[in-house]
Design a protein that fits this description.
Blueprint lengths: L1 H26 L4 H30 L7 H24 L13 H21 L8 H28 L3 H38 L17
Length: about 220
């Protein structure tokens, strides 16, 4: 119950933080490059949160080997983020630099950062996900979420360039991003909660639930 409540609260925070960029679209005439650049910055936030997870594991388990994962992750994830940025700039950057502003991303970026930091504290610390976190699994964990999210964003960004109503298209792009983000967030933490429940049942000596496909095998 507590875990489901945490998922609901962090989902709400995630949705609210993703709605902030709509102000840029509706009131400040953002172009698609500004929106995509903001979402690219969110990739960096997710990477920083993952480093915080490794630091938490190191502090809790006191194994110096855990610190070795951090530089490896920085190089691997940093290369991925850099390649993504190069693609964004090459495809979506406007020819006129006066049509977009990096400073405009400040408030939305703060909102997204606050949402991910809150999720880190609510789940990894509050729900004690760090107790059973696998350092190797943490190495690839951000990619599943980031890749799915940015595939949707790239498709939406391409549509924006082809639609004559840019404001409407950008609003749709934000909504697509929210849908993918929420789905990935809830799937990630529900899967962790399910694995933790299985661990508790095994520790308590309870039998694991039988796969319904093989439910009759035991009686043969």
């Amino acid at each position: 119950m507590r875990n489901q409540q945490a998922i609901n609260l962090t989902t709400a925070a995630l949705v609210l933080s993703n709605l902030v960029p709509l102000a840029g679209v509706l009131f400040y005439e953002w172009v698609v490059f500004e929106l995509l650049l903001l979402f690219w910055c969110e990739t960096l936030i997710l990477g920083a949160i993952n480093i915080a997870r490794y630091w938490t594991l190191y502090r809790q388990r006191n194994h110096a080997s855990l610190l070795l994962f951090i530089p490896f992750f920085l190089v691997h994830y940093g290369g991925f983020a850099l390649a993504h940025l190069v693609f964004l700039v090459a495809v979506f950057r406007p020819d006129d630099p006066a049509t977009w502003s990096l400073a405009a991303l400040g408030v939305p970026l703060i909102a997204l950062t606050a949402s991910h930091v809150y999720s880190y504290h609510a789940h990894f610390i509050g729900q004690q996900e760090y107790l059973h976190a696998d350092p190797k699994q943490l190495m690839i964990q951000p990619y599943a979420r980031v890749v799915a999210m940015h595939v949707a964003i790239m498709i939406g960004g391409g549509l924006v360039l082809w639609i004559d109503a840019p404001t409407t298209a950008l609003i749709v792009l934000v909504l697509i991003k929210i849908a993918f983000d929420v789905a990935a967030h809830r799937r990630e933490h529900r899967a962790k909660a399910a694995r933790e429940e299985i661990r508790r049942d095994v520790s308590a000596g309870k039998p694991l639930p039988r796969d319904p496909v093989f439910k009759d095998w035991g009686s043969q």
